[in-house]
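User: I'll paste a sequence; please echo it back and then give the predicted structure.

Assistant: Echoing your sequence first, then the prediction.
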Amino acid sequence: MTDRVAALIQKLTTTHRLTLSEYTELIQNRTPKAAAELAKRAVKVRQEIYGNTVFVRGLIEISNICKNDCLYCGIRCSNPHADRYRLTPEEILACADEGYSLGFRTFVLQGGEDPFFTDKVLCSLIGNIKEKYPDCAITLSLGERSRESYQRLFDAGADRYLLRHETANETHYRKLHPSTMSLATRMKALRDLKEIGYQVGCGFMVGSPYQTAETIAEDLKFIEEFQPDMCGIGPFIPHKDTPFAGEAAGTLELTCYLLSIVRLIHPPVLLPSTTALGTIHPSGREMGIKAGANVVMPNLSPVTVREKYELYNNKICTGEEAAEARDRLASRIRSIGYEIVTDRGDIKKERN
């Protein structure tokens, strides 16, 4: 690790911000020693706020029907090979019932942009879950909607919203998405969500096609300025039925490096160690936690549909990411010195 990289790490640790060129430099000149130092500092600041706790969320993948045609996504609307499904509100409530009995106190309703899930349908669903389990948080990850829609869902009881920005660079965004989508619309949605009062999550894929150190630097600068409550970053993994089928996957090494940087940019952020990390390496999620992450999201979806929600190839969907195997997952997390907790797990703005 050069003196210059060491100086950048020290600056990031103390000021929680760098210039675009400094972020680029930190990415381009990374070494194992730099990664270890970043992880050490990221873990220290996370422990000051959250101790050794890892929050667990119950993920319910409500539909793999999507009106969008994002080039990287296995459930894109033009993929004729996707085995489509849509959970009924009753099935979703049953997943929440099971999750609550297992100790989950946050439910993440995630899906493609499925026109079936109107405000009326979702508000009823959110209201039913909140009425039955008022001590739980509801996180939505359902893509771009109007500000009015976001407001109605918030008023119905939704607490959080995850909307990955995917890239903060306009040119890069156009290379990953169809012409019907725009970075401006995505950024407006994120601003709307924050103004309404949601706990908001953004994020991006690591190693996506056409990504460069410079575009990643723009992502980090956006996170620095936006100050999200949650930030989901995970490696890009290609899907066989997309235009990017032959592209290389993102790496565990760079993903963990960036997890540490994001933690230092915004110390209180809720930072998942994603299923994608567990897909590219058997110990990927543990390594993400040791790099600064503090959230895992086991799958509460019915076993019959888990393999159908295939955003990328070889997604793990029946092992320790499954909610029923929570004890095994807890044991793995405990083996690296952390404890899973199943409370709501809201962001802590102040350090202990």
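The CA atoms of residues 67 and 115 lie 8 Å apart. The domain at 3-341 is CATH 3.20.20.70 (TIM Barrel).
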